[in-house]
Specification:
- The complex is a heterotrimer of chains A (207), B (383) and C (85).
- Chain B is of the alpha/beta class and 383 residues long.
- Chain B is built from ten helices and 16 strands.
- In chain B, strands 5-4-6-8-1-9-16-15-10-11-13 form an eleven-stranded mixed beta sheet, with helices on both faces. Chain B has a three-stranded mixed beta sheet with strand order 2-3-7, with no helix packed on it. A two-stranded antiparallel ribbon of chain B has the order 12-14.
- In chain B, helix 2 packs across helix 3 and helix 3 packs parallel to helix 4.
- With 85 residues, chain C is mainly alpha-helical.
- Classes of the chains: A alpha+beta (207), B alpha/beta (383), C mainly alpha (85).
- At the B-C interface, loops of B face helix 2 of C.
């Protein structure tokens, strides 16, 4: 078996801007916080998915990037069902972990929230994307010190070579006190851009 | 298979002991590591959990370094990796991967009462501690995929080695019992008021546990009998972020993917080590999935009655006990089970018994709709 | 009682992030779960925390919570009878 993966499409979100396949989709005032930005994208894209507002910040970031990328593609529901999702970041779910930790620090005001606790895992946003698009393929969430294009390439290829997934949604989705950025791409035999470390890195840094 | 992958030299750091043999002997005697904990620094009321005394970890850690310089989970993982490396005599090369599986890492570093810097809660920092301690050449690969992390890490190692990215890998998994996780599961009203009872009619929730475990995964075998990783799969339910699927879809797909790859049918499987957290929804989901996969007659256990739910470590800890079951050809009891509390039949192991075990299936499921299944096979070689 | 019902609606919208609902959208007899507001199991747990935090009511029986969370009317009646703060 020798399947060659290419990059079919990509989408990045940072500094209040969404860019998909080189095209600016949303551009907002960078001064606003992430939650306001996410709400603006939701309204701008006219989504009807109220569950979005229940998600934590990492899941919102993951969800909105995937939502825009998958909308730009012609991908059937059968293809989606088999799609693998391989995501990564640096801070795992620490953004929400801190929020939960704050709720258990005080003895007088000790009311930890189950709706916050459930998001204290980095793969939950991936789960939200899978629920939304009925994706039932391979899933894995990785944590690295920095964006790691070589690993994404290697792992996506290993999934394809081992017949575990015909197409892989790969990327980086990071949010912490310092800011946020995400970059997702679809690795597929159908694409035209080469699935190499250099190209992945170039698309990531361009955005 | 063109490129077989083997398991070598497991190690365990758990409440049942700091060696695989101590763990197995406790399980043979049906001793549980779960006890009532009076730890008001964690929860204001007593709760059941399987915990390791910090004093014991520190005393054992002395041989490796200064215990005051490391967090509890770091010490557990370092002890585990040290033993696996020592027994396997693995030469760490440029082609050796370090794969770390955890859900929460050193989450206790976020606690204001903890003297360590908050930085230590970052998973790459935990990874770096282990990497630099043993001199791994490559950046660690941290897998944080809820409660399937430990077994998913084996699948990841296998896939990367089969694709010639690495020649071998050290996989280490670990998670803690912390104020963070105990209060969290408590708000979910998921904690059992006694040691958990997987698949039992009388169960009422989970018990949390802590553990670390490691193995070497390699394309080389170092014994005349070896355990080969023959198939794997990890599929999403696409159903709910915390509730298990009512149809067992993701688990079924994971098992099917592993069986298809291994070219094995349901009648070839000798033992299943299931997830069995002892929540009604999880146990029921598994019963449905295993029946759909026609695996309802295969002897099955959950080891949560011994270890509690050790989160990201659980599936690796439980797989290692499965390897010992294969080596000794013995079925270990599913502790806490009495009368069935599931709507479809499963062949739950009720006493220790001799049985030839050549093929073993390990499964796990977790939040985010995650599931994983890995199949192992015992193989003998000519000298 | 009406003030309590109003307060409950506001709190539910805020606590459960029901971004697309306003107080006027929720009728006192509307089903909170299932088809009504479309709440799920995590929302139910969150409501249990809200009862403890705002009204000093501790619920430990999941069956009991199903009964109480039927509608704003049922919930308000239960709170009025059992509140400790």
């Amino acid at each position: 078996m020798n399947i060659k993966l290419n990059i079919q499409a990509w989408c990045s979100v940072q500094n209040g801007t969404v860019i998909c396949n080189g095209k600016k989709i949303v551009s907002t005032d960078n001064e606003q916080g992430f939650s306001e930005f996410a709400k603006q994208v939701y309204k701008n894209q006219q989504w009807e998915y109220p569950k979005f507002f229940k998600m934590d910040r990492l899941s919102k970031l993951t969800f909105l990037t995937a939502e825009i990328l998958l909308k730009e593609l012609t991908i059937s529901s059968e293809e989606k069902e088999q799609l693998a999702v391989v995501l990564s970041n640096k801070s795992a779910s620490l953004d929400t972990d801190r929020k939960y930790q704050d709720s258990i620090n005080s003895i007088e005001n000790f009311y930890p929230s189950p709706a916050v606790f459930v998001y204290t895992l980095p793969n939950i946003g991936m789960g939200e994307v899978c629920i939304r698009h009925k994706i039932q393929g391979e899933n894995a969430f990785f944590v690295f010190d920095d964006f790691n294009p070589l690993f994404l390439k290697q792992y996506a290829e290993s999934l394809a070579q081992n017949n575990k997934a015909p197409q892989v949604l790969c990327g980086w989705t990071e949010i912490d006190e310092k800011g946020y950025n995400s970059f997702l791409y679809l690795a597929s035999p159908n694409g035209t851009l080469p699935h190499t470390e250099e190209t992945i890195k170039k698309l990531y840094t361009q955005s | 298979m063109e490129n077989p992958i083997y398991i070598q030299e497991p190690s365990l750091i758990t409440p049942l002991g700091f060696s695989v043999s101590e763990n197995v002997s406790a399980i043979e005697k049906e001793q549980s590591g779960i006890h009532e904990q009076h730890r008001t620094d964690i929860l204001d009321t007593p709760f059941y959990a399987a915990m390791i005394a910090s004093e014991k970890i520190d005393a054992t850690f002395e041989k490796l370094g200064d215990p005051s310089k490391y967090l509890k989970l770091e010490k557990m993982m370092l002890l585990s990796v040290a033993e696996t490396l020592e027994k396997s005599k693995l030469h760490i090369s440029e082609k050796t991967a370090l794969i770390i599986a955890t859900t929460k890492g050193s989450i206790d570093a976020l606690d204001p009462d903890n003297s360590f810097s908050e930085e230590r809660a970052y998973l790459p920092v935990l990874g770096n501690k282990i990497q630099s301690f043993f001199g791994f050449k490559q950046e660690p690969i941290v897998v944080s995929n809820a409660c399937v992390s430990g077994i998913l890490a084996i699948a990841i190692a296998k896939r990367l080695i089969q694709n010639n990215v690495y020649e071998n890998a050290v996989v280490v998994a670990g998670d803690l019992v912390s104020k963070f996780t105990v209060t969290g599961f408590n708000t979910f009203q998921a904690l059992s008021n006694g040691p958990c009872k997987p698949y039992s009619k009388y169960r009422n929730g989970i018990s949390i546990g802590e553990a670390a475990a490691s193995v070497v995964i390699s394309s080389e075998k170092n014994k005349t009998t070896a355990i080969e990783v023959v198939g794997d799969g990890s599929c999403n339910d696409a159903n709910h972020i915390s509730g298990p699927s009512r149809t067992g879809e993701g688990l079924l797909k994971s098992v099917q993917s592993a069986m298809q790859e291994a070219v094995i049918s349901s009648k070839d499987i000798d033992l299943i080590s299931a997830h069995g957290t002892a929540t009604i929804y999880n146990d029921e989901m598994e019963a449905i999935a295993f029946n759909r996969a026609n695996l309802q007659k295969v002897p099955l256990h959950s080891l949560k009655g011994y270890y509690g739910h050790t989160l990201g470590a659980s599936a690796l800890v439980e797989a290692i006990i499965g390897f010992e079951a294969m080596n000794q050809n013995k079925l270990f009891t599913s502790l806490g089970y009495d009368e069935s509390g599931i709507s479809e039949p499963l062949n739950i192991i009720q006493k220790v018994e001799k049985k030839t075990i050549n093929t073993f299936l390990k499964t796990a499921s977790g939040f985010g709709g995650s599931n994983a299944a890995v199949l192992f096979k015992k193989v003998a070689f000519e000298h | 009682m009406d003030a309590l019902k109003q307060e409950l609606k506001e709190n539910i919208i805020e606590q459960l992030n029901l971004e697309e609902f306003t107080v006027e959208d929720i009728d006192n007899d509307d089903a909170l779960f299932g088809d009504g507001l479309g709440l799920d199991s995590i929302d139910a747990l969150e409501l249990i925390v809200m009862l403890d935090k705002d009204y000093g009511i501790k619920l430990t029986d999941p069956e009991k919570s199903k009964e109480i969370f039927q509608s704003i009317n049922v919930l308000a009646a239960y709170i009025t009878e059992h509140r400790t703060k």
